[in-house]
Amino acid sequence: MSTTNTTQTSEAVSTALSTFLADSYSLMAQAHLAHWNVEGPFFFELHANFQKQYEDLFEAVDELAERLRALDVYAPGGLKTFARLSTVPEVPAGKALAKDFVAGLIEGHETTLASALAARDAAGNSGDLETQDICVKRIQTHEKTLWMLRSFLKNL
Ligand SMILES: [Fe+2]
């Protein structure tokens, strides 16, 4: 039976997966912040959508961290460490237009999507199809969310 060789995970896979995890965690925090502070005529819609995003990301970070552990790599964690590892930009802090929260989250999803693509490719190059599968699923979710957020901003 062929399985992933978990004792010889490449440095490239563990680094890319750790960055992807940090970006996902940071994006989760940004979605939560937007959920709290969004205001205006689209409040109910966006408040609920941002919650859906952080709930999805909460499950995603657990899956990514536990995949690292399955590969015998220790997962990074803690806000300071994630802030250091992540390049996800911050949504506005405090009062802002609803569209600016959406625009900020678009940038966050784009950054996290780029990390997911890098992790997918690193896993593919290592023949780690199981990690690649997790990344592919996350890529689909980020692309779908980006489509929805970009659609919201059209003609606004
Ligand atoms: Fe809430």
Account of the 3D structure:
The chain is built from 5 helices and no strands. It has 156 residues and is mainly α. It has one domain (9-153): Up-down Bundle (Ferritin), CATH 1.20.1260.10. Helix 1 (11-37) runs antiparallel to helix 2. The radius of gyration is 16 Å and the shape is elongated. The N and C termini lie far apart (55 Å). Bound molecules: fe (ii) ion (FE2). Fe (ii) ion binds at residues 35, 51.
**Cα distance, first to last residue?**
55 Å
The computed structural class is mainly alpha
Number of helices: 5
Number of domains: 1
User: Which ligands are bound?
Assistant: fe (ii) ion
Low-confidence stretches: none
Strand content of the residues, in percent?
under 5%
Total beta-strand segments = 0
Overall average residue pLDDT: 95
Q: How helix-rich are the residues, as a percent range?
A: over 70%
CATH H-level homologous superfamily name: Ferritin, core subunit, four-helix bundle
Sheet having the most strands: none
Order of helices and strands: HHHHH
Shape descriptor: elongated
**CATH class category name:** Mainly Alpha
According to CATH, the fold-level topology is: Ferritin
Topology diagram in text:
Blueprint: H1 11-37, H2 43-70, H3 79-85, H4 98-125, H5 129-153
The chain binds fe (ii) ion.
Compose a concise summary of this entry.
The protein has 156 residues and is mostly helical. Helices cover 74% and strands 0% of the residues.
